Amino acid sequence: MRHNAAVTAGAASETTHPDDEFHPPTSDDPYWTETCWFTFTVPERRLSGQLYPFFRPNQRVAAGGAYFWDDRGDQPWNCLYAKNFWHLPLSDARLSDLALPNGIRYRCVEPFTRYEIGYDDPDGGDEISVRLTFTAVARANYLGESHFDQPGRYEGTIVLRGDEIPVDAFGFRDRS
Predict the structure, then answer these.
(1) 18: DSSP letter
(2) Distance set, CA 133 to CA 5, 116, 157 (Å)
(3) What is the torsional sign of CA 176, 159, 123, 93?
(4) Residue 74: per-residue pLDDT
(5) Cα separation of 43 and 36, whole Å?
(6) Please, are residues 104 and 119 in contact by the beta-carbon 8 Å criterion?
(7) Is residue 37 packed enough to be buried (19+ CB in 10 Å), middle (13-18) or exposed (0-12)?
């Protein structure tokens, strides 16, 4: 991932930022990976969550996980909710407007600044539904040429087993 310094967050003349889209693999290594991670909290509920898709374009597959935990669990087997799906078909969709077969969705609303993210349990039922908006509060912090972290504010709702949980807190997104 290479950052184009000429493009700034929210630039009116750009429809997307280069780092809001998939990057061409830098090798033919089948394990060359690209990620897009969103993590957030609900402090008053001692709740944390993350949506973490990653992509292996040389294999034409994606994977993705949704994890939610509180202070009673710290492993996938004892947290509030954890599902990870492997070997999902990688479509030709743009990263800036993506829906994966495991229920993770996100859309770039304003380049490098504002994103809508969502998740619905792909097994049906009402176990979990996520509707959040991430708004950057600072520019992305690049760590070398192929990774950045960006802090932001999450607003929206999580419905976990029928319990509607409002979200208005800070968290991060990253790309590598």
Answers:
(1) G
(2) 25, 5, 9
(3) negative
(4) 85
(5) 23
(6) yes
(7) middle
Q: Do residues 75 and 108 lie in contact, with contact meaning Cβ atoms separated by under 8 Å?
A: no
pLDDT tens profile 81-125: 999 999 999 989 999 999 999 999 999 999 999 999 999 999 877
Any idea what DSSP says for residue 43? G
Strand, helix or coil at 20?
helix
Q: Is the pTM of this model over 0.90?
A: no
* The Cα angle at residue 33 between residues 131 and 84, in degrees rounded to 5: 45
Q: How far is CA 106 from CA 27, 39, 154, 161, in A?
A: 27, 13, 13, 22
Amino acid at 117: I
Distance between terminal CA atoms of the chain? 7
| Residue 9 structure tokens | 């967050």
Q: Taking Cα atoms as reference points, which of 47, 50, 37 lies closest to residue 73?
A: 47
Q: Mean pLDDT over all residues of the chain?
A: 90
The letter for the amino acid at 168 is D
Bridge partners, residue 84, by sequence: 65
72: left (phi over 0), alpha (psi -120 to 50) or beta: alpha
Nearest of 172, 7, 18 to residue 108 by alpha carbon:
18
